[in-house]
Write a structure and sequence with these properties.
By secondary structure, the chain is α+β, with helices and mostly antiparallel strands. The protein is built from three helices and six strands.
Length: about 100
């Protein structure tokens, strides 16, 4: 089940807790072939410190932007919070903005 958060500050607090608990799933099968330069640490930094927004097309999906990358570039991380045997954050995709 996908969780929906109206309040993005509440979402950010939940994401920080989930990341620190190691409750993160990254869908590498999609990310690596299309965006091989994106690293796990860059995605986690985006989740922890990025600016959040609701995804307009998918309810329960969120976008985080971050420049905490090396070399510096704007990274977009698309994620959801799912509930199955507890909550966890799922990174659906991540890529460098053009």
């Amino acid at each position: 089940m996908i969780e929906f958060y109206e309040d993005l500050e509440m979402l950010k607090g939940e994401i920080k807790w989930l990341v620190k608990q190691g409750r993160v799933r990254i869908l590498w099968r999609h990310i690596k072939p299309l965006h091989p330069s994106v690293t796990k640490i860059e995605m986690l930094n985006g989740l922890l410190y990025g600016m959040y927004k609701h995804d307009r097309e998918h309810r329960g999906r969120y976008i985080a932007w971050s420049r905490l990358t090396c070399p510096p570039r704007l990274l977009r991380v698309i994620f959801e919070v799912r509930r199955a045997n507890g909550k966890f954050v799922v990174v659906v995709t991540a890529f460098e903005e053009e």
